[in-house]
Write a structure and sequence with these properties.
By secondary structure, the protein is α/β, with parallel strands linked by helices. Helices cover 45% and strands 14% of the residues. α3 packs parallel to α7.
Length: 353
Amino acid sequence: MPDLDSPATYAAHDLRGMLAHITGLPEQCERAWLESAGISFPEAFRKVTGVLILGLGGSAIGGDLLRCLIADECPVPVVLHRDYGLPGWVSERTLVLACSYSGNTEETLSAFGAAANAGARLFAMTTGGRLLQRARELGAVCYCYHYEAQPRAALGYSLMTLLRVMDRLGLVRDKSGEVAEAVTVMRSWLTEIGPEVAVTNNAAKALATRLYRRLPVIYGAEHLAEVARRWKGQFNENSKSWAVFDVAPELAHNTIAGYQSPARLAPLAHTVVLTAPSLHPRVQARLQFARELLSSRGFASEAVEGRGQSRLAQALSLVLFGDLVSYYLSLLYGVDPWEIANIDAMKRRMGAA
C-alpha cells in the first residue's frame, strides 16, 4: 500500500495539483464571498415565486448544498434540474440560475434556452463558454469568475456565489457571519487532517485506509444530505472508485430492509454516516439504529461529525474532510485525482454523435 506520509507518493500521482485546490477551500470560499458582493438584480427579480438551479456534476453540487442549507429559511421553493428542457411550472415568476463551470454543458444550455423561451428571470454563473455568450445575448444577469481547476474543485465559488444571490434577493438573511465561521472551522480542521499530519494522527488518512478496496456507502440527512452526494461524487472522480450515498430519514423506510442480501457484500462495503449535533434527534436515532443493523449483519460503519455551530460550517467542514479522504484514497489506488478519462471519453462520443 502506498505511503500517505511520503512526499514521493504525492509527487507520483498528483501531477496537476489537486491537493492545493482541496486544501485551499477555506480561502476559495472567503475570496468568492467577497468577490460576489457586487452582484445586483433588477427589482423584478425580487418578485419570483420559485428558484430553479440548472447544473450537472461539479457545477451542480453548489446548488445541491444551497438547497439543503436554506430549506428552512427561504420563502420560495428551490429545485435542482439536472437535465435537458424544463419542468412545466417554470414561468416569468421563476428565477433560473444556470451554473456551468465551462459554460459548455449541453444539458444546461438546453435548459437555459428553454427558460428564456418561458420568460423566466435569468442568471448565469460560469467562467465563460457558450453559456456566457448566450446569457449576454439574452440580457441575463451574468457572473463570470476566474478560477482554473476541475469544476468540482470550484465548489467554493459556486456555493458562495449562489448564497450571495439569495442574500441579494432578500430570500435569506445575511450569511457573512456564517461564512466567516465556516472558513475558520475549515482552517482549524486542516491542521489535523492535512497531508503533513501522519496517518497515525490523521482521521482523514485513516478513513481512506479503511476504505481502500472497499465500497464507500455514505449516509447524510437534512443539511448534510447533499454533502453525502458530494462524498460519493468525489470518490467517483478523485479516487476512480465506486461509491453510493443515501439520505435519512428515507433510508429507514427502505434501505435498511436490504441489508440482508447478498451476504457476501458485508466484507466489501464500509458505511460512513455524516452527522452533526443539530440534526433532528429522531433522525439521529434512525441513523444509529441503521448502524446497529449493519453491525448485526457484519458490515463496518462509522460516523464523522461536522464541526462548527452553523449549518454552513458543519456542511463545509464535512465537504473538506470528505474531499481529503477521496484524495488520499486516490493515492492508495495509484491514480491521478485530477483526470476523468471516462467522462472525457463520454463527452467526445456525444460530441461526435
